[in-house]
Every structure is written in structure tokens, then in C-alpha cells.
Predict the structure.
Amino acid sequence: MRFERMRPAQLRAAIDAGTPFVLPIGVMEYHGGHLPVGVDMLAVTEVLARLEPEVVLLPPFAYGAASHAVAGPEGTGNLHVDASALVPFAEGLFTALLRGGFRNIHGVIHHQTENFAQGMPTDLAFRLAARNAIFRFLESERGTGWWGDRAMRDYYAQHAAGVSPFDWIRIHPLFPPGNPYPFDHAGEGETGLMQALVPEGVDMARAAEGDHWYTETASAATAARGEEGVAIALAHVRSRLGLSDRMD
Ligand SMILES: [Zn+2]
């Protein structure tokens, strides 16, 4: 289900059913001559599409902090938006969703997520924005001092039972840490993902273009290996979203 195609009654039904509402978070970044600039967003949107109709997909956010670490801006497709500009946008979006009654909100990101525990600018911006939005929403709904109120004395017990307002919005990497699928930039791993998910976007004849070190492994990629990566990502996201186990 796509958020933008749903009527209000369908949205309310999805909320009542506890359906996860998932925001794909991406960037536009140069990925060598053989891959499209939307690799990091497409990996997320195309994996999540395989979870429909168990999830509702929000329209993707495509304009994260790509950085110019890989390539400069001119003629490369790199669109870098500084993370400081993302925080107010994301906080506004999350606040709108909370006000709309959504309580099972997730963001999924692939860009620069090889060390997600410490974070990188785009995911940190959305993670901070989520926390800010929840704090501000709780304060607006419950008033200042809400946490210190006697009615909250079972706060930690509720946590232990898996209930926390800070779980209303969660941000996840597309892949679990330490998984066997190669994590790279436009190498075997991402090339395989695109061959599996967006084959029309791949032009292997251009894999050596630019003579980059990071594309040297791209020629080893296959769609079949990419599907193995997709399966790993799917199982990981299903578990993070609390979806029941299923053979994909
Ligand atoms: Zn990438």
C-alpha cells in the first residue's frame, strides 16, 4: 500500500491494524558509470515494495546528505543537502505523522550505514528529528513535567513490556550489521542489488568508467547474488518492523 494512494478510511484501518508506516530515506549520489544515482534510495524502495501489503510505504525522501566524498557535484548526479537542513524537515514530517495518529512509524536507510551504531549525517538527522518530534509531541499533548507525573510511575515497567513512546518512530539500516553480503559503494554488493532490483538501470559496459578503486569488484556481481542480499535485507527489515516470520 502506498500512503499517497490511500483514502482516509484506509489509513485509519491500517493504523487500527498496527500496520507499519515506512519512510524510505535516500540520497542521490554518484555510483560509477554503470549504476543510477539513486542506488541507495532504490535499494530501500525496491526491497520495501516486496513487503507490501504488510506495510504502508510513505513517499520516499530522496534528498539526504550524499556528501562529496565519492565525487564532486558537477555532472555526477551528486545532490548533497547538508544534514542541518534535514533535521527541521524531518522533525516537521514526523510531527505531522504523530499528529495524524500514526504510532508505528519507521525510516529505512542504506546510505553510509556500514557503522549505523555511531551514525552518519543523514541517518543521524532523521534519528535526532524523530526524538525531537516525540519529545515535543508528548509535551504538547501531556504538558511539561509529563514524565515526572505520578501516573508515569510504571514507565520502566511499560518499557519492559515493550511499550515506549520512543518506539513510535524508529530508524533502521537496510542491512543488519555483520551480515555476509558485501557492503560497498558501486562494487559487487550494490551492483548485484541493482541487477536484482532495478536491472534496467544497470549498464555493465560502463563499469570501468572513471577507473575507480571502488568499482573494481563490480564485474563479479550477479543478479542471483543480489537476490541473496535482498533476502538478507528483507529478513532484517521484517524483524525490525515486527512483521511475523515468513519465507520470502
Ligand atoms: Zn550506495
Remarks:
- The two ends are 18 Å apart (CA to CA).
- Residues 121-142 form the longest helix (22 residues).
- The chain has seven helices and four strands.
- The pocket of zinc ion is lined by residues 31, 39-40, 185, 190 (CB under 6 Å).
